[in-house]
Specification:
Blueprint lengths: L19 H9 L2 H10 L8 H13 L7 E5 L5 H4 L7 E6 L2 H10 L4 E4 L12 E4 L22 H12 E6 L1
Parallel strand pairs: 1-2, 1-4, 2-3, 4-5
Length: 172
Amino acid sequence: MLAGWRSWGAVPQIFDEDTARAHRLRGLLTDAQWQAARRTTINAHYTDPAIAAAIWQVALDLGFEAGGRVLEPGCGSGVFIGAAPVPVGMFAGVELDPVTAAITQALYPHAAIRTESFADSRYPENAFHLTIGNVPFAKITLHDPVHNSGRHSMHNHFIIKSLALTRPGGLV
């Protein structure tokens, strides 16, 4: 059941405050969860597992080996974590929405899922062998003085930061 979670982006109408569904959902979430969920509707659209599997195959074909350290920024429900075809030494995921992050952690207890903005995530430079995923696209700028001093759009920031966190010779 949890693996079928497809994000708040799939149901943005649920946040229409004038509906019974919105009132019911509001009663189930804390104010912080409500705001986080509502904020993600614009760019929370998850990758089909078949696409994730194909991207993993490309990573293997390019030399990624079992046991490496892997980052999935903007991990959503962990589609790329679940699609990993080989054992991973350490899997790190970052997800802004606390409900989605909790689902991902429940599905993949071996992964270290952080509930925070990727702009706020701090990992050592060159920490990962592979950064994999489908970054969120939006024409908004995230504040990250270390990895986004150029004030790039969200998707470009994700890519720039992913490159910095992936070791030389690694894959992004």
